[in-house]
């Protein structure tokens, strides 16, 4: 993730990066927060994971 974000910073027109992550994936959510991503919304039951509908967390990071 660090490498990807460092490369993204080199793109002068890039102002924001967005992503979606399963709400149940606490480790991934924490990692993204540690890299400066912030939650801006949720998509209830946005994905099917292991036969169960799970929420998606929508996140962004500004440059």
Automatic annotation (TrEMBL):
> Record's InterPro entries?
Acyl_CoA_acyltransferase, GNAT_dom
Q: Which GO terms describe its molecular function?
A: acyltransferase activity, transferring groups other than amino-acyl groups
Domain N-acetyltransferase per the UniProt entry, residue ranges: 1-63
Q: Which residues form the signal peptide?
A: none
Q: Which organism does this record belong to?
A: Candidatus Woesebacteria bacterium GW2011_GWA1_40_45
UniProt superkingdom: Bacteria
Name of the protein this chain belongs to = N-acetyltransferase domain-containing protein
């Amino acid at each position: 993730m660090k490498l990807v974000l460092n490369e993204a910073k080199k793109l002068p027109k890039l102002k924001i990066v967005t992503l979606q992550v399963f709400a149940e994936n606490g480790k991934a959510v924490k990692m993204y927060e540690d890299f400066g991503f912030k939650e801006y919304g949720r998509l209830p039951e946005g994905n099917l994971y292991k036969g169960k509908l799970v929420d998606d967390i929508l996140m962004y990071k500004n440059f």
